[in-house]
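Quick sanity check, Aspartate-semialdehyde dehydrogenase:
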Amino acid sequence: MKRRVAVLGATGIVGQRFVQFLADHPWFELELVMASERSAGKIYAQAVTWVLEKPIPKKAYELKLYPIDIDLVAKEKIDIVFTALPADVAKELEPQLAKKGVMVVSNASSMRLESDVPLLNPEVNADHVDAIEVQRRNRGWSGAIVKVPNCTTAIATLSLKPLVDVFGVGKVIVSTMQALSGAGLTGVPSMFILDNLIPYIEGEEEKVENESRKILGTFNGNNIEFNKEISVTASCHRVMVLEGHTEAIFAELKSKTSMDEIIKVMEEFKSNKIKNMGLPTAPEKPIVVRREIDRPQPRLDRLEGNGMSIVVGRVREDKTLNGVKYVVLGHNTIRGAAGTGVLIAELLVKKGYA
């Protein structure tokens, strides 16, 4: 039987991606779309400024848009709520939903670093999902809150995971070139970004540095422990690209190896936590490695694996860190947001949590 799902914050870019992924999903039935009061009462197609590359899905077109209403979510017996809300709003609303027995898959940054809240990048740390049981005991609710990582972090940690498992990783330096869509529909005025680059994104560097260590950490049965072997430093920049975050990553490796072996380990990704689970949104190859000297590129590579694969290129030895340096690209609103959110929900169903 299909799970009944809702999207809160359904008119923003990430909300639109959730609607796109859920409208024709084999496991989920999109029952409710919710947004701000000013949009409420209209049908979804009238209220949304649709900016995605494909048209609004037919199943979502005529859905009535409601104001955010926790009681309505409970009344409609919604199994899973996907939230694309500002962090301050999510911090207040999401615990109320969990208290109503609802499973919340959240794209908001609030609560991401709390030790009983799974911060899931499924191929990397699907086993952290079992922290839900601890969360329920600690907080006394029957629902749960599970977090989608920051977009940049989701891409970086997926590329690092096979290296961590096979060679061991110490210091990591991340320098990003981040797409405009990551700032939302009205996030970066054209006069600021045309003919320009903005070398600052508020809060982004801290998210990458902290979330990466949690995602690459371990669940010990009582809480999620941050990885103490890895230290991450980041510099984040907004560039004039519509979609697709590009990251230059420099990683210290604890075992000496060859670049050919690194490429092989990335492509094979034997420690993929959800391999053979049959999750519909999971890409066949989570990590694609390109050999061309000028790849990956956002326009050419962001939709690899329906936007759920990351693309690695320019794999080279790093003599300064005694490790490897490479470029990785991922679709920020799919792999870095809604696509991973839907993949998390599929994992929750598979594991019996939803």
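Posting the structure with no commentary besides this: Residues 151-331 form a domain with the Dihydrodipicolinate Reductase; domain 2 fold (CATH 3.30.360.10).
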